[in-house]
């Protein structure tokens, strides 16, 4: 077990950028104390932007930061998928109410362009709302409206 | 910009478990200074276990920890997918050499059972190795051999 | 080898509905002599309805007939997929010109509702048009506008 | 409505190969009178080769014929998918008994190599057998053992 003093020791040789990274992680950790979001979702600065009635889609955002990138300095495809999965899960809550829990059955993601910086937007549409299965599709765009990824997913409603 | 002193201030009211979480993150951050892995992959304790010649699969492992879980205390499906994507990407490196870079075109993941704790294993098989397209499949199991997820993916070789 | 006389013999005990089925097949076979469509596509009465500029989609139709159904008297899911694959392939031709041939890399199809009778419509959108990879999505609806299936597909351009 | 005489008239100008094609279609139609298979499945000469206990897979075969090909004289990808869908549906029957009907929720198919002639083999494995959802994977090979396609599918058990 690491003590508080040990942790402070560990922080001694962090450089400026690493200090900022750890600070963001501490902030996310504190938010997750009271947030319905998971820690990883807080780290992504995941947020809901409500329902776009005109388009019929639920809108979400996340912030691309250094610690979420792959070795090529692009957003890690796994994090893009985490964004999509979280957007779909949140849509189930918003569209069908919090008393029904649903789990992801499967996801199919096409990665169309790399994401480098700034905020991403996910727009999620309910394609089918069955008694047991909910089918959704999500499109992820960057700040310039460029399409980053498109995905479909099946969610399973627990009784 | 947060200063080192500001960060230390922020750490004052972390509880025991949060101290451990931040410590793990600092460790992962330090490893990522010299590691070919992305930070998020270090956070997952991603590692390669070599090629299983008998089965014809490349083997990888990751550790399920609290900060990688969703609100239901199961491994976040997005992190499972990050594990799979990283395993497939590493397989391209191991199977075809580091001079060829490849990017994920698409992933299709079926989530079969929740993962709760301990090490997960990913076994990745190259299904097709074309000049441009590499098709792989990955199966993720937990410590008890239970199948957690199965996935297929297309990777695109950059020239 | 069956002779013409042998075939006529075989037709003796067909009932009324079977006569109609074979007649449709003969018609499709004759159309396929001069058609750029495959025989199976002629059997489905596949046709292009042009480009819907307002929606940005290419529109196609097919006719659900008895011989294309499964044992439950619904359109066979494999035929729905044949419709989708043909619509995507035709879209490549229309959008990028006939000098470029493209082959299907993968298809992901969600079956949302059974199709029973009448004409189906497929609307295909080009989601990404890369130098090598074309990503499309197709939605299939029935005469009442009910969503039957939704699909995404990757096509690979041959040089 | 076409009469028997009208049909015979229509057959007058068929060439040798077309006569053979129509003959195969009449045969398939007659088999489908008593067969649990759909007409399109009979046209593919779909058949079950039983359970391979050693590999843990259900084995099926189909015959590639001219009328199932696309305009490039390769097996139409939609027919490959029809083969896969039928193999998965038959596996549900064999593995779980005929009293439970199941429908295809989604299919994900990777087309790996073109199929030209002869018999194809589909090997289907049950990956997950839930109370409601059955996940399967199917690999299609040709006579030379070359991998033609690999697929995963979710089936939904009707109560």
From TrEMBL, chains A, B, C, D:
The keyword Lipoprotein does not apply. Residues 73-148 form the Thioesterase domain. Its EC number is 3.1.2.20. InterPro entries: HotDog_dom_sf, PAAI_dom, Thioestr_dom. It catalyses: a medium-chain fatty acyl-CoA + H2O = a medium-chain fatty acid + CoA + H(+); a fatty acyl-CoA + H2O = a fatty acid + CoA + H(+); a long-chain fatty acyl-CoA + H2O = a long-chain fatty acid + CoA + H(+). SUPFAM superfamilies: Thioesterase/thiol ester dehydrase-isomerase. Gene3D superfamilies: Hotdog Thioesterase. Keywords: Hydrolase. It is an enzyme of class 3 (hydrolase). Belongs to the YigI thioesterase family. This is Medium/long-chain acyl-CoA thioesterase YigI. It comes from Polycladomyces zharkentensis.
């Amino acid at each position: 077990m690491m003590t508080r003093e040990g942790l402070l020791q560990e922080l001694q040789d962090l450089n400026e950028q690493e200090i900022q990274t750890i600070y963001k992680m501490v902030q996310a950790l504190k938010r997750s104390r009271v947030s319905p979001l998971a820690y990883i979702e807080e780290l992504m600065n995941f947020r809901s932007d409500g329902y776009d009635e005109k388009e019929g889609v639920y809108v979400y955002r996340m912030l691309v930061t250094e610690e979420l990138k792959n070795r090529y300095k692009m957003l890690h495809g796994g994090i893009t998928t985490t964004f999509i999965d979280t957007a779909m899960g949140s849509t189930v809550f918003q569209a069908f109410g919090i008393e029904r829990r649903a789990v992801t059955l499967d996801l199919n993601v096409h990665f169309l362009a790399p994401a480098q910086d700034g905020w991403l937007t996910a727009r999620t549409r309910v394609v089918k709302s069955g008694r047991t299965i909910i089918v959704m599709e999500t499109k992820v765009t960057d700040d310039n409206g460029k399409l980053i990824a498109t995905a479909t997913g099946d969610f399973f409603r627990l009784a």
